[in-house]
């Protein structure tokens, strides 16, 4: 069994255990989030969405892929995320949503993806969605074809780089109402990965920390 397969098997095992949840997510969230979540929940139940954190081999190590949205007059303009989107009535469950959206956005074929497990649900106050993140693995790097109407660009990141603590930095961003706030983020090839996506990464890396591989 290769080291990669051993890692995948151990990751599946860790994902089946109780997850770190908010204790890991909140390491990468701005201080304003708690108030935003409280305000959102007063408006009623959120809508459901799913994302796929896909692991696959590239250059001898596991990578994952991020997408970047187009510039538009919306709250998530130009932001970085994992492939995913809102649940449709035809989706049998949240996992089906993640796989369908990944196919639509990046031509990731569902039959080539082995789902290992799920991370903690995550509320997104600005858009009033709850995200259901799934971890999947592909034996080969997919032939990514971004859907031009939804994906501006994409970039691939090795897990070794993603888990480097030096990638965590802090910056100031502006909300749609003009307010300035500070937030931690992941600096990935110059991309500012913050908000819900950073919180998903943070929990994934916390789960990964528990994996011990023999030399």
In words, what does this structure look like?
It is a single chain. This protein has 215 residues and is an alpha+beta fold. The protein has a single domain (3-208), classed as Nucleoside Triphosphate Pyrophosphohydrolase (Alpha-Beta Complex). The protein has six helices and eleven strands. Strands 1, 2, 3, 4, 5, 6, 7 and 8 form an eight-stranded mixed β-sheet that branches. The protein has a three-stranded antiparallel β-sheet with strand order 9-10-11. The radius of gyration is 17 Å and the shape is globular. The model has no long low-confidence stretch (mean pLDDT 90).
Short summary:
The protein has 215 residues and is of the alpha+beta class.
Write the topology of this structure.
Blueprint (H helix, E strand, L loop, with lengths): L2 H13 L6 H4 L7 H9 L5 E12 L2 E8 L11 E2 L2 E3 L7 H13 L7 E5 L3 E3 L4 E9 L15 E6 H4 L5 E7 L5 E9 L2 E3 L1 H15 L6
Parallel strand pairs: 1-7
Antiparallel strand pairs: 1-2, 1-4, 2-3, 2-8, 5-7, 6-7, 9-10, 10-11
Strand content: 25-35%
The Cα radius of gyration reads: 17 Å
Chain-averaged pLDDT: 90
Number of helical regions: 6
Provide the CATH architecture: Alpha-Beta Complex
What is the CATH domain class?
Alpha Beta
Biggest sheet character:
8 strands, mixed
> H/E order of the elements?
HHHEEEEHEEEEHEEEH
CATH superfamily: Nucleoside Triphosphate Pyrophosphohydrolase
Which geometry do the CA atoms define? Answer: globular
| Total separate domains | 1
Percent helix, as a range, is 25-40%
The fold-level CATH name is Nucleoside Triphosphate Pyrophosphohydrolase
Low-pLDDT stretches = none
């Amino acid at each position: 069994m290769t080291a990669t397969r051993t890692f995948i098997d151990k990751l599946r095992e860790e994902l089946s255990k109780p997850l770190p949840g908010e204790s890991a997510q909140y390491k990468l969230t701005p201080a304003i989030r708690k108030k935003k979540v409280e305000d959102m929940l007063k408006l009623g139940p959120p809508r459901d969405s799913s994302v796929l954190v896909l692991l696959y081999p590239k250059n001898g190590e596991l990578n994952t892929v991020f997408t970047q949205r187009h510039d538009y007059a919306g709250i998530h303009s130009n932001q970085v995320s994992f492939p995913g989107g809102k649940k449709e009535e035809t989706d049998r469950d949240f996992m089906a949503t993640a796989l369908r959206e990944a196919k639509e956005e990046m031509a990731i074929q569902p039959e080539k993806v082995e789902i290992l497990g799920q991370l903690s649900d995550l509320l997104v106050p600005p858009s009033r969605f709850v995200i259901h993140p799934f971890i999947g693995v592909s034996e080969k790097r997919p032939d990514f074809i971004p859907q031009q109407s939804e994906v501006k660009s994409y970039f691939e990141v090795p897990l070794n780089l993603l888990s480097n603590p030096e990638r965590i930095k802090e910056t100031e961003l502006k909300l749609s109402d003009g307010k300035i706030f500070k937030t931690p983020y992941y600096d990935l090839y110059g991309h500012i990965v913050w908000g819900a996506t950073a919180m998903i990464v943070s929990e994934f890396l916390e789960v990964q920390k528990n994996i011990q591989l023999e030399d």
